[in-house]
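Hey, resending since the last one bounced:
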Amino acid sequence: MFRDRDDAAFRLAEQLRERPLIDPVVLGIPRGGVVVAAVLAKALPAELDVVLARKLRSPNNPEAALGAVAEDGTLVMNPEAERLVAEYPQYVARERQRQLAELERRKQLFRSVRPAVSLTGRSVIITDDGIATGSTMAAALRAARAQRPRELIVAVPVASPDRLTELQPLCDDIVCLEAPEDFWAVGQFYEDFSPVEDRDVVELLQQATASRPPCTHATGLDPEGRRTSCAPHSA
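The C-alpha cells again:
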C-alpha cells in the first residue's frame, strides 16, 4: 500500500537510482502518471515530459478499455475486445475521434508549457501511477519506440501481472514494485488516490522547465561521444 503518488514514486526511484542511464528522460502518462514522473525526474535526475495516450472506452462499461490511442494516432486494441469492435465499428470510430480530440486539447495545453523533447538515442522511462488494462501504456510505448530511443523502460508502482507480461515485448525492461494476483484496480493500492487535474500537470511541467532547461542534443556529449544528462540550471 502506498500513501499517495509521491510516496510510490520515491520508492520507485530507489529501484532506478543506480541504473546506468544515458541522457534520461521520464515520460508521464497524464494525469496521475505525471505526478510520479516528476518525482522520478528529480531523483534520477532526468528530463520530465509527458506522453499523451487515452483509452478507448467500452460502449457497455466506460471504465473498461477497448484499447487506446496515442497523440500520434498509434492505435492499440485489446484482444479480448475484438468481439465488441466487430459489433460496434461505428462506435469505435467515433470513440477514437473523441479521444484524439481530447489528446489534441491536452497537447495544446501541455506543450504550450513545455515543448516535446527528443527521445532519439536516450534512455526513456515511461511511467504511470499503475497499470490496469495496459492498453494506454502499450499505445504510449509504441509511440515512443517510433522515435528510436536507446532503451525504453516501463517503471510503475503497481500493475496487473498479466498486463506486465503483455507489455514485455514492447519495451526493453519493466520495473514494477507490486504485481499482486488479486489486482482489480490501481486505486486499491493507494491510501490517497485523489484526482489529478490539468492544472496540476501544468504546474509540474512549469516547475520542471524553471529548474531545468531543455537539453540541447547537438551538444552535451562526453569524450567518448555518448550523450550525457543536462546539467541542472543554476541561477
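Residues 5-51+118-211 form a domain with the Rossmann fold fold (CATH 3.40.50.2020).

Sorry for the duplicate.
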